[in-house]
Amino acid sequence: MFKEQATKVKITSVVIVVGMSAMLAAVVTDHWAVLSPRVEKLNATCEAAHFGLWRLCKKSIFIVKEDPQGKGCGPISLPGAKNCSYFKHFTSGEEAEVFEVKTQKEYNISAAAIAIFSLFFMILGTLCVIFSFGKGRDYLLRPAGMFFAFAGLCIIISVEVMRQSVKRMIASDETIWIEYYYSWSFTCACASFTLLILSGVALLLISMPHMPRNPWETCMDAEPDTLD
Asked: What DSSP assignment string belongs to 74-143?
């Protein structure tokens, strides 16, 4: 690997690390979206919820005054009794028949599975980048770029699956939630998609063979024909 090429790979690797960190933060946290019911009156308790790929958390919040941001019950940062349940627990009993539980389980299993594929692609891409610094192994930059691009595509598919889950929850008459907004975990997922896609494309461009700057450069570098 040429010195100039190695420098570009190192700069791209920094962007990749940031993208991977953002993705890991999105995958392991449960603040993708915050759901809120209509607040009928003040000085009463309402139940808001936030969820991620693995669990759904409900929080009882005592409302003293209206939310200045107009987000119904909240903000979610207010103190209150919190109850979180992992989606794998929603398999038996009466709770398994609750609409929001069934909906979240259906969508989140899909989103989580796709996110795991994204993690797998990131691991493969990271290994390719590390080994590409060996002598004569710069060809590994091309599959590394593809792996990181695939990781970005997987995470944006997970984002879209979660968006559809939120829309279905809000549109249903069987749930108490009528308002929602996407939280910081969702932002991390979108940021990781952008960074991983850009990094993948950058690695593919870096791995491309040197193009001649002048039309006659290739002809000049060619060996002259010998006459018998």
From this structure: --TTS-EEEEEEEGGGTTSSGGGG-HHHHHHHHHHHHHHHHHHHHHHHHHHHHHHHHHHTSTT-GGGHHH
